[in-house]
Design goal:
The structure is a homodimer of 405-residue chains. Chain A is an alpha/beta fold and 405 residues long. Chain A has 11 helices and 18 strands. In chain A, the strands form 4 sheets. Chain A has a 7-stranded mixed beta sheet with strand order 10-18-13-17-14-15-16, with helices on both faces. In chain A, helix 2 runs parallel beside helix 3, helix 5 packs across helix 6 and helix 7 packs across helix 9. Chain A is globular and about 70 Å long. The two termini of chain A are 18 Å apart. About 1% of the residues of chain A have low confidence. At the A-B interface, helix 8, helix 9, strand 16 and helix 11 of A face helix 8, helix 9, strand 16 and helix 11 of B.
Chain lengths: 405, 405
């Protein structure tokens, strides 16, 4: 199940970025499970990673390598997360980088590794290494779709977003892919996401842009509240266009960032729409709080409540569960009698109780849609936040009771 | 579904406590939905209530009345929570108390109201008031079972616990009932629980005992992480036995408290065993943390993870999901490489990775049981905590997608 039509967007390839895939048979049979991304020389890269204390071996290695050099290759496998695998896991990771660095004649530090799949099983390095020549052989700038497919696990759809922007008379492009459908409650970064541009962006600016855009997108979604051990989001710039972005204060940066945030948000929303067992795509907006933290706390309390999520699944406008979640979000001095709640533009709660004009039919007509908003007005400040989430369905239970992720 | 056999315990009636039930037809047909508890004169009472900011009208009224007088009657209805009902809800509550106070010739402040059921609908006061004479007419010290049944909502079993203790040559009894199966993640008190003793206990000591025992029982369970708007736990002492407990420092208090905690914990565990759709009763113990807060934070992260809960339902010892939950519990400076995890006495994780001797079969044999423990050793301090929880099953989704609670 997934929300809305699966639409593959128009993709603007990025000069300086080539993608190659291969079948390593790590866990899945008869499908691509290895992705290689090649970056042109002098490209810059930035990334944000999972905050999970049990971060996977490839996450530690990618972090360290990114600090010491500009990457030329990213090697990604699906089917095995190489997480909670200790020293053996780190060795498996380094062996893969060594093989690639020898074949391509580049330092190991210029390769970044990523893994997604089952936690706690050792990575079959020899299978991964054996598949690298195949991936190298089919590197191409046009391979975005098969690249997006190769990193899928419980995803039912490949995810991509792409934008063009004209800056100082030159057209630049931003294109990205992502994967993720479960264990989704990113904290500073999410699942796997790779976004590239052909503009020239300094590493400092790129890091700032990557962190800001991830915060406005991947850090605003939740499917099941579980933060993965492998979340990684990488932003790359090849500098193939004569557009130089060296300061976050410039007009160019603002235009570039605006398009970048659209790409990030599109990818993040595609992840929610493809949430495990998802039948609803719900925006939760909390308005007029004292600060952003309390707005987010309430939004996540609603989004994580199994009772709210099952009511979403049932298309039952059970607003009592929404106010109960607001009430236990542990907000200092919250005055329940000031709170209004809307389902799209239907007011259901006014001053903490059922709104005078509310009818079950009106609530029902909103909840029957596949996409809608729950809007909470706290009337105690001027800050707002919004997040995106899904329902909790029988299919979610089936997927996670049957799939060893 | 529920875990284990439904066992109705031996009940020691409490002299000075009478229980009466009635059919008001508030929401349920052909079953008792009103409970009246009558306390002998000079009884003392204490209580802890929900911390939900949207606390229900009866909770506000009960809190205020308990402060101003010793209660003689508790009136409880199931089927309607009288929560988020504003001024009308408070008026409905007070009308009920007024009717009872006039019939019995006692001040209104000596009546405590409680409600459980659907949130956001107005309480049909006239039905409740009309049923009071029936409840008064069948008041009896032996009615604990029909009392426990009358307060059930999505519960599949009545819940009770009872203990006798010999203090200074005199035998006292402690007997309690509780209800609750969903919207269970108490915070300072839970659902509805009524516990009485025939000892004489001063109000101050009773409040201390009630808060301590609730903290060691109802505040250590979670089914779905949702804290209800109506949680209330009342402890009553009739003083019919010549045992006086006036200080928390006395030997009598320690013995009394020990039995009391057993009654509270038995009721709390019965609630978890009867959790909506529950097929597993799981104890989560976190050992050797720096402080109790971090132990509880990790325990609840595991207990609330939908991925862990669906793995419990599937009897799949998917320990990767357990360590992922530990990792995102947001514990300052947590060193994943020091952590051990056990399933009962089977070590599954050693120093943050799969234990050398662990086999899937060993893990499977534990997870196949209906009751087991997940034990996490942090190796960074000397504090421990444990909580009790359930799995997330298809039946949970069905119950909450179909039942308007």
């Amino acid at each position: 199940m997934a929300v809305g039509e699966a639409i593959w967007p128009t993709i603007y390839p990025i000069e300086g970025v080539k993608l190659g895939v291969a079948q390593a048979g790590i866990r899945y049979k008869n499908r691509n499970d290895v992705l290689l991304i090649e970056l042109a020389e002098n490209s810059t890269a930035a990334a944000v990673f999972t905050q999970n204390a049990f971060c996977a071996a490839p996450v530690s290695v990618a972090k360290a390598n990114l600090q010491s050099a500009n990457p030329r290759y990213l090697v990604i496998n699906s089917g095995n997360a190489n997480a909670c695998t200790g020293d053996l896991g780190e060795r498996a990771c380094l062996q893969t980088l060594q093989a690639l660095s020898q074949t391509c004649g580049i330092p190991q530090a210029q390769v970044l590794p990523f893994s997604t799949g089952v936690i706690g099983e050792q990575l079959p390095t020899e299978k991964l290494v054996a598949a690298l020549p195949q991936a190298l052989a089919n590197l191409d700038t046009e391979n975005w779709r098969i690249a997006a497919e190769s990193i899928m696990t419980t995803d039912t759809r490949p995810k991509a977003a792409s934008r063009q922007v004209k800056l100082n008379g030159e057209t630049i492009a931003i294109t990205g892919i992502a994967k993720g459908a479960g264990m989704i409650r990113p904290n500073m970064a999410t699942m796997l996401a790779y976004i590239a541009t052909d503009a020239s962006v300094s590493k400092t600016v790129l890091q700032h842009a990557c962190a800001s855009a991830a915060n406005a997108s991947f850090n605003r979604i939740t499917i099941d509240g579980d933060t993965s051990t492998n979340d990684s989001c990488v932003l790359m710039a090849t500098g193939k266009r004569q557009v130089h972005i060296d300061s976050t204060e410039s007009a160019e940066y603002r235009e570039f960032y605006s398009a970048l945030e659209q790409v990030f948000q599109s990818l993040a929303q595609q992840i929610v729409r493809d949430g495990e067992g998802a039948s609803k795509f719900v925006t939760i907006e909390v308005k007029n709080g004292r600060n952003k933290e309390e707005c987010l706390k309430i939004a996540y309390a609603i989004a994580h409540s199994p009772l709210v999520k099952t009511a979403l699944f049932a298309s039952d406008p059970n607003w009592g569960r929404i106010v109960a979640a607001i009430g236990y979000a542990d907000i200092d001095g919250l005055d329940a009698s000031k709170i209004d709640v809307y389902l799209d533009d239907v007011q259901v709660v006014e001053n903490g109780q059922r709104a005078a004009g509310y009818t079950e039919e009106a609530g029902q007509s909103v909840f029957s849609n596949a996409e809608f908003s729950i809007i909470v007005d706290l009337h105690r400040g001027s800050e707002s936040e919004l997040i995106w989430t899904t329902d909790l369905s029988h299919e979610y239970v089936t997927i996670n009771a049957e799939y060893r992720s």
